[in-house]
């Protein structure tokens, strides 16, 4: 079979008797008419009246639409036109609408990136503002967890907030979408760090989504912001829309979560000695920071002391300065595991996630990274998949079981 690597594919040849499982998403075909599907969903909302009716009733003056950043591919070419059409039919003018890019702690967008994601027509006609986690924030008080809730001042000043996004598995929040547009999307750095610090106790034994403390805190923050409406989609690996959910912050989102889990949570009978995982190609393997998700999912499929072969091009290197510094400072994986418990730092959380896997399993990395950078990740650098398979053949004297994960960033192995 062939596995994606950047914009290309590499061939995987492995004796069939060694392969316990090939973990692929329980794919659904994309809907026939995604534009119409979105229009219908906005009219038939979960837990709320149709968007147009809500806007006509509330008569907002300032509407904030929260949108994903470049790291989360979202089919906005289908999603935004019906959304804007409903707002304008309800009497809202262009100048009353601002798009806020939910960058969290990621870099702000360039105009060129906005045009690439949202289209030149929208960028020329509406305001697009990238969130800054360190400036122009307002304090909303403590959440029930004790987390101090700082949020983008302009979003807080809007009198009607709409969240947009895509619902996919997330390695510690359970799933993306809905409430994540607020926290971490437009929250302050301190708030994000405190929220994400809970991942240290969740990694490896993630609770059911309605009991996930990270997700529940995100929901509370979004409720404090009085989010009026969400428009989220579930997509397949081709990024086609398979389900649209619109309406209430929780009711609509949980309906989308159910559809996403049915596709991407894949049951397996047992773990394997060796897992061969592709991040899924560009942009999911754009850098190590993004590719970590596939490594985490492969970890769920691999026995203690086993081997993970990760295919991730990583054309942009490690991907984040703090993450890079943590990896440079660590002499062994345990250093990062200890350090994150002493003080949680965003960026450092990725170093922890990779190091936690490297503590118990051998990571073989096939990437464009050089030897020095690969060493920083506590990984073994091998240039080709063919060489990597020869390596494990010798390591296990030919006696090993294997799981193959062609869509590693998306699929989550779950022991039956």
How is this structure best described in words?
The structure is a single chain. This protein is α/β, with parallel strands linked by helices. It folds into two domains: 2-24 and 269-415, 2-enoyl-CoA Hydratase, Chain A, domain 1, CATH 3.90.226.30; 34-264, LarA, N-terminal domain (Rossmann fold, 3-Layer(aba) Sandwich), CATH 3.40.50. The protein has 16 helices and 20 strands. The strands form six sheets. Strands 3-19-15-16-17-18 form a six-stranded parallel sheet, sandwiched between helices. It has a six-stranded mixed sheet with strand order 6-5-4-9-12-13, sandwiched between helices. It is globular, with a radius of gyration of 22 Å. The protein starts with a strand and ends with a strand.
In terms of topology, how is this protein built?
Blueprint: E1 2-5, E2 8-11, E3 19-22, H1 34-43, H2 51-58, E4 63-68, H3 76-89, E5 97-102, H4 111-118, H5 120-125, E6 127-130, E7 137-142, E8 148-152, H6 153-157, E9 160-166, E10 169-170, E11 174-175, H7 189-196, H8 199-202, H9 213-224, E12 229-235, E13 241-247, H10 251-264, E14 265-268, E15 272-278, H11 288-301, E16 302-311, H12 321-329, H13 333-342, H14 348-360, E17 362-366, H15 371-376, E18 379-381, H16 385-395, E19 402-405, E20 412-415
Parallel strand pairs: 3-19, 4-5, 4-9, 5-6, 9-12, 14-20, 15-16, 15-19, 16-17, 17-18
Antiparallel strand pairs: 1-2, 7-8, 10-11, 12-13
């Amino acid at each position: 079979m062939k596995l994606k690597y950047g914009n290309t594919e590499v061939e995987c040849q492995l004796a069939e008797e060694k392969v316990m499982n090939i973990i692929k998403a329980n794919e659904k075909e994309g809907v026939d008419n995604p534009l119409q599907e979105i229009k219908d969903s906005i009219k038939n909302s979960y837990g709320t009246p149709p968007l147009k009716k809500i806007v006509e009733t509330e008569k907002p003056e300032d509407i904030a639409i929260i949108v994903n950043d470049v790291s989360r591919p979202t089919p906005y070419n289908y999603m935004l036109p019906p959304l804007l059409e409903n707002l304008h039919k309800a009497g809202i003018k262009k100048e009353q609408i601002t798009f806020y890019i939910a960058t969290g702690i990621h870099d702000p967008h360039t105009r060129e990136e906005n045009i690439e994601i949202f289209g030149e027509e929208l960028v020329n006609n509406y305001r697009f503002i990238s969130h800054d986690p360190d400036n122009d924030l307002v304090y909303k008080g403590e959440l029930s967890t004790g987390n101090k809730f700082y949020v983008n001042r302009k979003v807080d000043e809007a009198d009607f907030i709409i969240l947009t996004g895509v619902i996919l598995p997330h390695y510690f929040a359970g799933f993306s979408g809905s409430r994540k547009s607020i926290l971490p999307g437009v929250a302050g750095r301190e708030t994000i760090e405190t929220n994400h610090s809970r991942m240290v106790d969740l990694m490896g034994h993630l609770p059911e989504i309605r009991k996930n403390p990270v997700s529940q805190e995100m929901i509370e923050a979004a409720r404090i912001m009085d989010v009026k409406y969400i428009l989220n989609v579930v997509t397949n690996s081709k990024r086609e829309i398979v389900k649209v959910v619109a309406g209430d912050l929780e009711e609509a989102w949980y309906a989308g979560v159910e559809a996403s889990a049915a596709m991407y949570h894949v049951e397996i009978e047992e773990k394997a000695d060796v897992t061969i995982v592709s991040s899924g190609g560009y942009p999911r393997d754009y850098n190590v920071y993004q590719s970590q998700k596939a490594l985490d999912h492969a970890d769920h499929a691999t026995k203690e002391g086993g081997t993970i072969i990760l295919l991730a091009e990583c054309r942009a290197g490690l991907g984040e300065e703090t993450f890079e510094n943590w990896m440079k400072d660590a002499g062994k994986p345990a250093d990062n595991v200890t350090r994150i418990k002493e003080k949680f730092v965003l960026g450092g959380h990725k170093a922890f996630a990779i190091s936690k896997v490297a503590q118990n399993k051998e990571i073989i990395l096939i990437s464009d990274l050089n030897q020095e950078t690969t060493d920083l990740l506590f990984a073994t650098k091998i240039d080709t998949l063919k060489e990597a398979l020869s390596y494990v053949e010798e390591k296990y004297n030919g006696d090993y079981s294997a799981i193959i994960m062609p869509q590693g960033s998306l699929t989550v192995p779950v022991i039956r």
